[in-house]
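ok so I'm stuck.
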Amino acid sequence: MTRALAPTDREHTAARLLASSARHTLDPSLEVDWDAPLVPGGWGMPPERTSLYGTELWDTLDEQQRITLSEHEVASMLSVGLWFEVILMQMLTRYAYDLDLREGHAQYALTEVGDETRHSVMFARAVSKLGTPDYRPHGLLHRFGGLYGHIGAGPSMFASVLVAEETTDRLQRESMHDERIQPVLRAVSRVHVVEEARHVRFAREELVRLVPTLSRAALERERWLTALVSTEVVNALVQARVYRSVGISGRVGRAAALANPHHLATKRFMLEKVLDFLRGVGMVGGPSELVWRRAGLI
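replied:
not stuck anymore, here's the structure
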């Protein structure tokens, strides 16, 4: 397990992140051409990353239906990402509430809240531009998310945030360079990737600082919380309702996706880097690893 970072290390990182924010903060209202029409034949996400790619259901779809499904799947990911970013903003604000706001570390936490506010609006505008439904989770998961926003804290908060952010980030890094993808979505991906690099650094260093201070019992508790929250978020990224856009029932589409080795490989690709890091700092391991394995993510 990595050594804990000292408070001076934390302030040094905060100073660098604040300076980077001052130089490289992007305004989505200027960076994304929201007035440009969608490009005919443009994909929402790489076709090989869609959940039904390689299945018999995929073979029944024509080219336009496949494109439509890709648009709805990326809209689902953006909607769920937006939902989780609102939760993150609540947690970060509570986190900063207990800090000395004269310190750079606290000021960067508030700076990240500002970034996430812009990202949330950007994601909402992108979903609206695609003309797709709002795919944020409904029912029990939505209520659980609201509760977690009020109580999430400590290492499991930072670990869950990393999972939510780094999974979408990895897919967006692919999409932003893929000329098959709608230009508006490539621009959205670029903005998010640039700014999330700072957020990832902030959360990773907090975990390196916090995890070595935990007792064995506290570490197991934080591992369980991380596993439960993270697997729920990852499995919610593609909502079953997306399949209705191409005339497939949500139940049938969901079952086909869950049984699809291509979809499972995509989820593992999205999680690969962040799980390697979490295992390295000790946040994945022990009995709670069963949660990850049952979800097919390890």
